[in-house]
Known about the structure:
By secondary structure, the protein is of the alpha+beta class. It is built from 5 helices and 5 strands; from the N terminus they run βααββαααββ. A hairpin with a 3-residue loop joins strand 4 and strand 5. The longest helix is centred in the N-terminal third of the chain and has 21 residues, at 36-56.
Amino acid sequence: xxxxxxxxxxxxxxxxxxxxxxxxxxxxxxxxxxxxxxxxxxxxxxxxxxxxxxxxxxxxxxxxxxxxxxxxxxxxxxxxxxxxxxxxxxxxxxxxxxxxxxxxxxxxxxxxxxxxxxxxxxxxxxxxxxxxxxxxxxxxx
Length: 141
């Protein structure tokens, strides 16, 4: 299998369509006969990142790449950045607004779930500039 790439634009503050990119990618992985356990991990990681972009960053984009050995996700936004990555990785910590919480989001599990669902995760963030998250899930492990 050659490398296959997909690109998704994520609209900020659009809770109606939040999750549509991860749902589409999950469907594509299933059609490619990726094992259900891997599909589930990728779907969770991508969904959590996608929701974070909608909630905190006024959108951004996701580049998803499938190669024979791994699935790589690159999530980029030009949002406010993450002030304290270590604190943001703490389960239950959230900077979501009351409005977002009323919609059922912002429980502070996004980054921890992303980390737990991936084999590798890197966060590059600059307050006032934006955030890039790169996640990898190994296929043949």
